[in-house]
Design brief:
The protein is mostly beta strands. The chain has one domain: Immunoglobulin-like (Sandwich). Helices cover 0% and strands 45% of the residues. It has no helices and eight strands. Strands 1, 2, 3, 4, 5, 6, 7 and 8 form an eight-stranded mixed sheet that branches. The protein starts with 18 loop residues before the first strand and ends in an 11-residue tail after the last strand. The relative contact order is 0.28.
Amino acid sequence: MGCGNGEDHANRERPAASINVTVAILDEQIRVSPRNLGAGPVRLIASNQTDSPRALTFETAGNDPGLTQTTAPISPSGTAMLEVDATEGEYAVTTAGGDIKPAAVTVGTPRASAQSELLQP
């Protein structure tokens, strides 16, 4: 037999391409754009525009167990990136302390595969 030795294997489609979501931590609230997106890989790019270090948390909303991911503390005027694989549902973007109003994010049905997109890793 040759190099391929005749074994069959499943050709799985690639996941959806990752999307960027911007997050601004302000003195009174967190702003997120976009706030509605499809399920799949998400890269949150956060900037801390307050005078204190702040860690950012992306978590399933409500009391249901689910996804919770947190950055290291972000220095004032600093940035951080958080990558999550979000499934369909409601999420909250928060910081510790409760003095800053959290942002709500809605994740809808899964985004299409990136199988046919050029220049993907």
